[in-house]
Each structure stands twice: as C-alpha cells, then as structure tokens.
C-alpha cells in the first residue's frame, strides 16, 4: 500500500465496510445493487497499514457455491427455479453493515440473521441468533444501533402480514440480561430500512412504501413487491417514538408525505426527542438497478424533527440542498447525544442524466441548517462507501473523515482522509496495489486498543 500525504497520528484502528461484492453466480447476472453477495473490507491503520477483504460465507453463499449456480431469488433479480427460504423469505446476502457487539464482530443484511466474523481474520464463523431468539426467517434489520457506553444493541424487524402488519423492536444488552422484544402494530405492511436511537428512545420514520407478500410468493422480486402509491391514495408518513428500554410506543405522529432511507442521529432530554434524518420525495430502490445505477435519483433534504412528547407535536426544520445525499455518519462516540454535524456522500450532478456516482463529501450542520461541500472529486472520481468520523482526542470539534475513494482514469483505488470541518482536498491517500474494489454500503471505525 502506497501512502500519499500524512495520516494524523491519532488515526489508529480499523475502518470496516460491508457491501455487495459479487454480482454473478453461474450464468446469472444480478440486476440490482442490493443483490450482490456480502463482502467485508478492512483497512487497518497502524505503523503498517494493511488492507483485507473477505467474502461472507453465508448459507446462501455456501449453498450456491456447492451447486455451482444461483438458488435464491434476489432483491431485484428473479430467474427460473429460484427459491425462497421456507417459501416465505428471500435469503439475505448479508451485505449491508458490520458492527462490534461486545467481543464479537457481526455482519448484517436486510431482514435476515446477522453473521459472526473472526475479529482478526474476518473469516465467517456462522449465524448469530442472539441466544436462539432469532431464526433464519426472523425479520431483522441491516441497521442495528450499538451504544458504545452501555453495550446495548438495538434492532428491529418488520412483519409484512396483510392483515396484521407490525414492527418488532429488540434490545439486546451486551451481558445477555433483560432482553426486550416488543411488537408494535403498523398501519400497513410498510418497508422500513433504518431507525435512530437516543439515550431513552428509538425513532422510526414510517412512510407508506407498501410491500406485498402475495407478489413475492407468486414469483416476484422484493422490488416487484414494493409499491409507492400515487399522491391521492398515499397514506401519511408517520414518526413512531418507542421507549428504548421497555419497547412501549410513546408517540405516533403524522409528519408529511416524504420518504426516508437513512437516519443520522437522535437525542432527547426526557420529554423532547430530536431526530436528524434525510428525506426525499420518493423511494430510491428503483434507482439501484445496475443498468441505470443512480441515474435519476431525487434531491435530498437534511431534516431535523423535534418531538414534544407531552403535547404530541412535531417541529420540522429543513435544509435546502441541490444534491442527492446518502450514507450519513456521525461521531459514534457521541451516540444518542446532541450532535451538531453529520457527514455524508452526495451526487453533484443530481438532476442530470449522468449521476451514476457519489462524487462529493458534505457536512450537514443541524444547528445552523446548512449543508457544506467539503470536497468534490475531479471528473470520473467517486466515493466507495459510507464515510467514518475519527475524532481528534486533543482538540474539540476536530477530526478527520475516512472513506474509500477511487479515480479509475488514473488507476487509483483506495482510501482517503479529509479534515472533517474544513473544505479542501484529501490530507492523505492510501492506494491499493490490487486494483478495483467493489462499492460498499455501510462502515464502522474501531479505534485501536490503548
């Protein structure tokens, strides 16, 4: 690995990413970004910088490797003879995120079991069921939240029953005591991808993106089964506030008609909950088709919602931004606390016919309702996964952002570091010798042990 520039001395640890890394099995080419089999990448920053990459050997992976052909229907890909798990669920490629939970490293996919990885080698150890509390068909999020202080892991899953749709909230303490599992009825079988957690509450942005189990059972893909109704027939988007500790529903409030894929953060003072998130005027899973990836994505608004639980009222503040934004990241050491900034990727050419790539790094300042472009790549350059914030321990409101960055025209593949608060070019680049690496989804940074 070649280093250009200088990596600040406080940046020591492992930057981990999960994302789809294989899009062909046998003679079948996947057609959707969410179909690719999960691949874990790790950049270990120390006296010697080391890059490691491993495909995740899930049940889906191993069965299809043995068969020499695809077996399971994908999020956006169907083929003759494709299967569902027990006839009711797609097989998760475990390609969304990776988190530390206690002394374990877990990889997560959409609506499926997490898988445990060897912390040192990244080799797959097996499915993680939280002591038998989950099964291979238990819906479980690809976006758990892990409290760095208490060690609690919070998660959720959605039941898409046409008659009794529901959201199940989970809280798993690191010591396996007092596990919470609560069921919350939903107004419809709505797709929910992410949530946010404060010290006392969990917040769910529930838009009417309806999922049809009938379509799935009759041979459709997950994408085929999702429907965003026209304005005149669309139910209102709602914000659910759930007690983090016991799972009880504390508020269910209408908040307009927009869609949210990812939330940034939440914090509370006991009776007021603030939620920071990204909203769009429609879902974007259709924009994840590989033949036209990100070609016509909508613009995104950073939004801060402040909920008065006693009055049952929501105050909304929005930040105008001409970019499509995604992959919001915060200082995870401040999990559940009031944070002023989030960092995210953007597409500077949003609105044109040639979006295709995340080419910009931005910082949203939730206090001033502003969104600042820290850097936009030269033509053809792009970011390859969720950024991570690494705080400077010696200076308040200071730190760096690390993110995959690629410039194919120069045969540059690797990672780069930026000042988290001052616009400008990368402070350092760490360039890989093995050539192209896949586009990832979500990241985590694990500081080196003292």
Question: What does it look like?
Answer:
With 450 residues, the protein is mostly beta strands. The chain has a single domain (2-84, 190-204, 213-447), classed as Methylamine Dehydrogenase, Chain H, CATH 2.130.10. The protein is 4% helix and 41% strand. It is built from 3 helices and 34 strands. A hairpin with a 2-residue loop joins strand 3 (24-25) and strand 4.
* Helical segment count: 3
The average pLDDT is: 95
State the share of residues found in helices, binned by percent. Answer: under 10%
Q: Give the CA-CA distance, first to last residue.
A: 25 Å
- How would you name the oligomeric state of the polypeptide chains in this document? single chain
Overall geometric form: globular
Task: Report low-confidence residues grouped into runs of 5 or more.
Answer: none
Write a compact overview of the structure shown.
The protein is mainly beta.
Give the topology.
Blueprint: E1 2-5, E2 13-22, E3 24-25, E4 28-29, E5 37-45, E6 50-55, H1 59-67, E7 97-101, E8 104-108, E9 115-117, E10 124-127, E11 145-146, E12 153-159, E13 166-172, E14 180-185, E15 196-197, E16 201-206, E17 210-211, H2 213-217, H3 222-225, E18 226-227, E19 238-243, E20 249-254, E21 263-268, E22 272-279, E23 301-308, E24 313-318, E25 324-329, E26 341-347, E27 360-365, E28 370-376, E29 382-383, E30 388-391, E31 399-407, E32 412-419, E33 428-431, E34 442-447
Antiparallel strand pairs: 1-33, 2-5, 2-34, 3-4, 5-6, 7-8, 8-9, 9-10, 11-12, 12-13, 13-14, 15-16, 16-19, 17-18, 19-20, 21-22, 22-23, 23-24, 25-26, 26-27, 27-28, 29-31, 30-31, 31-32, 32-33
